[in-house]
Q: What sequence folds into this?
């Protein structure tokens, strides 16, 4: 495709994602369906340009004020993902001069919002929470996430999968903490590999893998993944159970559970029982009360720990929506807790970085449920031989209570988990 035509297409896509009427990934997929002639490289440029603009929206809007021509075109130029020479061949002389001037702006000359690129309602609390670590977090949230894979412990060994990937031209390193993880170099498309279609690998952030590991579900147990969605964690838990016992995958969205089915078929698991529930107090939940060994509540949340993958979320979320989620999270955790049998384990997890969706929910639950004893996540991870477990945790008197993962510290999405045992 000619550079000029590609830049025009980028500007069109940027205009669409900036409407925020749908999630950015859905808008990008739709754009590709409408433009089937686009090759893989062009698609990568288009998607990364749109995501680049979402990641640095405040900075680019600030710089775009000084340019000329349509605003979306200026934003697409600033966020363009590709060689500078290629981009410049699509620009007129005036645009080239303007881009050079923009490239010359030094970070120290910028105002804080143009450096962190977060909405004020989010920047303030994060700054308060993190202090000097705020800017490193903001910077890490503007980077694309690496491609993490989870090796299906039921059917494959990590070293063998790593060697097989290498033969396919995919270089991958073992993830630092998850025993099931491989971090691929670059952005290889793994979906067409036999390793993927035969269920030996799934795409899953290392942080998600650690949540499933923390549940430590054993052979033959009764386990509930209360908010299973498309089953990312369900699949990891089912494999950890060695395809024995019974693993219920609940979710209120039948549509999301449908997406679990082909993944289940690939995985070779037959111990998973997906079930759509009407709400967290569904009859099915009541029938299983007090019978379950391990319950994972991967609660619906703001998703603000996943901004590397979903940069549009920072512009689409609102403080009001977070408050609604907080109510929901408390209610779901309380209902799901009823399932746990005496001696059983309960985990509350989110992929948010906000204390109100994390520690506050865990503390309120703990205060109201004396029969649930908090467990130190770091002790459990040590027991599972996870390297540097202490460094992955925070909270409690000794900083070992909660799993607390951060992109700038751990290279994962932002995750939180609290663990209890029922007395
Ligand atoms: C964070 S996502 C789950 C992601 C999934 N565990 C995974 O690893 O891929 C939260 C899920 O909670 C579901 N959900 C929302 N309200 C719920 C409720 N009241 N009871 C159960 N699930 C609910 C949503 O449909 C969504 O799929």
A:
């Amino acid at each position: 495709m000619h550079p000029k035509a590609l830049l025009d297409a980028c500007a069109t896509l940027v205009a669409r994602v900036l409407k925020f009427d749908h999630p950015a990934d859905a808008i990008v997929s739709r754009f590709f369906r409408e433009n089937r002639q686009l090759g893989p490289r062009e698609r990568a440029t288009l998607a990364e340009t749109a995501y680049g603009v979402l990641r640095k929206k405040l900075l680019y809007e600030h710089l775009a004020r000084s340019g000329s021509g349509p605003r979306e075109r200026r934003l697409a130029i600033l966020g363009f993902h590709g060689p500078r020479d290629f981009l410049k061949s699509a620009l007129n002389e005036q645009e080239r001069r303007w881009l050079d001037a923009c490239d010359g702006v030094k970070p120290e000359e910028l105002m804080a919002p143009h450096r962190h690129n977060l909405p004020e309602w989010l920047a303030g609390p994060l700054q308060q929470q993190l202090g000097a670590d705020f800017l490193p977090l903001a910077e890490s949230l503007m980077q694309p996430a690496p491609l993490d894979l989870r090796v299906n412990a039921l059917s494959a060994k990590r070293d063998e999968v790593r060697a097989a990937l290498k033969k396919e031209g995919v270089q991958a390193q073992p993830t630092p903490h998850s025993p099931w993880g491989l971090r691929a170099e670059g952005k290889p498309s793994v979906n067409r590999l036999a390793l993927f279609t035969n269920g030996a690998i799934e795409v899953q952030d290392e942080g998600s893998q650690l949540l499933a590991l923390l549940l430590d579900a054993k052979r033959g147990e009764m386990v509930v993944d209360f908010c299973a969605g498309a089953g990312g964690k369900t699949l990891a838990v089912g494999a950890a159970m060695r395809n024995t016992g019974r693993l219920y995958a609940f979710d209120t969205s039948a549509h999301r559970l449908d997406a679990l089915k082909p993944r289940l078929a690939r995985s070779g698991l037959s111990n998973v029982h997906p079930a759509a529930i009407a709400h967290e107090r569904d009859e099915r939940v009541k029938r299983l009360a007090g019978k379950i060994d391990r319950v994972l509540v991967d609660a619906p949340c703001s998703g603000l720990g996943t901004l590397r993958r979903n940069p549009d979320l920072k512009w689409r979320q609102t403080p009001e929506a977070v408050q609604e989620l907080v109510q929901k999270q408390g209610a779901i955790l309380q209902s799901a807790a009823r399932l746990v049998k005496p001696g059983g384990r309960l985990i509350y997890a989110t992929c948010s970085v906000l204390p109100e969706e994390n520690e506050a929910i865990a503390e309120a639950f703990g205060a109201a449920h004396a029969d649930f004893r908090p467990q130190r996540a770091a002790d459990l991870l040590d027991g599972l031989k996870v390297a540097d477990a202490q460094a992955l945790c925070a909270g409690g008197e000794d900083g070992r209570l909660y799993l607390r993962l951060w992109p700038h510290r751990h290279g994962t999405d932002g995750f939180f988990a609290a663990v209890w045992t029922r007395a």
About this structure: The chain has three domains: 3-117, 147-203, 206-422.
